[in-house]
Amino acid sequence: MRPIHFISGLPRSGSTLLAALLRQNPRFHAHMSSPLAGMVDALLGEMSGRNELSVFISDEQRRRVLRGMFAGYYGPEFPAEVIFDTSRIWCSKLPVLSELFPDFKIIACVRQLSWIMDSAERAIRKNALRPSFMLNFQTGSTVYNRVEAMASGDGLVGYSYNGLKEAFYGEHAQHLMLLQYETLVRDPAGAMAAIYDFIGAPPFRHDFDNVQFDVGEYDERTGMPGLHAVGRKVAAPDRSTVLPLDIFRRFENEAFWLNAQANIRGVQVV
Question: How far is CA 127 from the centre of its chain?
Fold first, then answer.
């Protein structure tokens, strides 16, 4: 297979912007989240002991089946030399990915959790007439209910956060690089240079004043128009939070990646 790398990390942290920038390089394919992570989970389940016929499946067959799924999904209609697949689930799948692609890299987008919650709440309020998939289309909640649901272990933010910590502290952390949203929007050239160095690719001159990416049809279908909209020019947003201050301050100390002493695996944080 062609080289394949992964974009993962926390929601509302710049993964769509990163994919839009990577796509400027004709050697690369990158996009918003793909269905592959869910397909991997489904296949692992079907090849597990819950299927009585799994006794006939060896681990090598499991590897070939899963690698074949990637090869089939990224077929001739994706002519790029290097593939970047995106999903927030990938951070929790490093042991699986290590079995399939020994040389893979994973770029995890991170951001201060307070601003992630703020960004999600803004998107929900912007589409007030359309209950959000981010909250399983529930209605009648307050901002406190919404934040609590997103922060829970199986919530939009909580699951990704726990998966990120698993990858950061796990034995496969050498495959991982953390890209801070703040770096990407304030120093995009430096951020992209670090990514190219991390994956061992030759440099490419990106245009940070003319970023193009359109998944408006997908956002419309999910009831969240504008959710993945990317500004034409990379720039840091200048705004105050829409969250009550007690919620905003609740997450101020959750950026574990900023604690150098806790970085026991020496993960690169950009």
Answer: 23
User: Is residue 135 within 8 Å of residue 127, measured between CB atoms?
Assistant: no
Task: State the residue range of the domain holding 179.
Answer: 4-269
Q: Quick check: pTM over 0.85? A: yes
Total domain count for the chain? Answer: 1
Q: For residues 62 and 252, give the distance between their C-alpha atoms in angstroms, rounded to a whole number.
A: 42
pLDDT at residue 245 greater than cutoff 90:
yes
Q: How far apart are CA 121 and CA 123, in angstroms?
A: 5
DSSP secondary structure code for residue 2 in this structure:
-
Q: What's the CATH code of the domain at 263?
A: 3.40.50.300
- Whose CA is closest to 22, among 6, 11, 36, 38? 6
- What counts of helices (H) and strands (E) characterise the chain? 11, 6
Between the alpha carbon of residue 150 and those of residues 137, 138, 155, the distances in Å are: 13, 12, 4
- The DSSP-derived string for 121-168 is HHHHHHTTTS--GGGTT--S--HHHHHHHHHSTTSHHHHHHHHHHHHH
CA 72 distance to own-chain centroid: 22
